Amino acid sequence: MCMPLLRHRSPPSSKSPCKTTAARALRGRRAFAILPPNENSEGRIMIKRRGVLAGAAGWTIVGASSVRAQAWPSQPIRLVVPYAAGGSTDTAARIVAEKLSGMLGQQVIVENKGGGNTIIGMDVVAKAKPDGNTLLLGAATMATNVALGMKQPFDPLKDFQMISTLVDIPDLLAIDGKALPAKNYAEFAEWVNKQPQRVRYATSGMGNQPHLWGELFRTRNKLNLESVSYKGAADALRDVMGGHVPIMIDVVLPTGTHVAAGRLTGIAVASPERSAVCPDVPTVAELGMKDLESAAFFGLVGPAGLPAPIVEKLNALCLQTLKDPAVKKRFAELGFFTTGSTPQAYLDRVKFETERWTKVVKENNIKVEG
Q1: Mean pLDDT value across residues 44-67
Q2: Does the domain at residues 170-292 carry the CATH identifier 3.50.50.60?
Q3: Which of 140, 185, 260, 367 shows its CA 20 to 30 Å from the CA of 309?
Q4: Burial, 37: exposed, middle or buried (Cβ in 10 Å; 0-12, 13-18, 19+)?
């Protein structure tokens, strides 16, 4: 860096002073063309030096990040599941954790942090150090909580790094055939719309993804329905099976098992193809309602700022996991469809779902506390 400075300060040569001055000016223009023409040579040199130092600092940061990513993982990894232990979501997380543990050579430990409509668990990851050692099983609530206007100490689109979608569990509409005499959608719609009062349908929670889909299904098809929200699928199913409410709208499990056993009648499943849990139930696309395809979706997420090499590695491992026939079979038995995506496609999915459910919430004046 001192060579230009020495040249500028060397004694005059035997050549013409005019030629020497012109040569110096030409050298200055070549080296510092972006600087003002009246800037003195020492100022130019100092700016150039600062630029090199700034560039070196930038490369140092990038290099350090790359080194850390190459050394990762060097310790067990936490996979935060924003739900209580038990249930199909928790099981799905453990399937993924088991596969990742084997491929990474470090144990991936599932840590259940339920509560606050998944906000508590999500906040743990949003505030975690972006070193790849704390990950999240992202849920549909990344979109629905925003649509519902819930207060959250983070921004789902800015405070997380999407890695890959993992699985979808589609919505299902089923009925108690004893209370509602219908064997297919046409008979269902005809019976519902002939009733003098609105027919109630049960959901597992106010404002959750299946409830929002139920309202979308109702308005799209102009059905004479109204929702009744319970605190969980078990309570909702109990009333449907007991003859108190004739319709159940929820994700395919556990409701689909009752359909498969003949205790309930399946009317429509919102997946692109039929579910392995209740394969006799037609898809919404088969009924001419492809725009009503819908599912609670899950994926792998990290905190914002997660180094790109770690994101890329985890994404590749997720896609590899989802191609495993044994994994696909286990997920299908739980009612899940395996997906897998790029980080950008996952982010786009969250944005799409947020816009979709925000519209449903506003049109139906849905309000929840929080």
Answers
A1: 48
A2: no
A3: 140
A4: exposed
pTM of the prediction? Answer: 0.81
Q: Could you tell me the two tokens for 38?
A: 């009246």
Please tell me the CATH code under which domain 77-165+305-356 is placed. 3.40.190.150
Please check the confidence at residue 128 and state whether its pLDDT lies above 70. yes
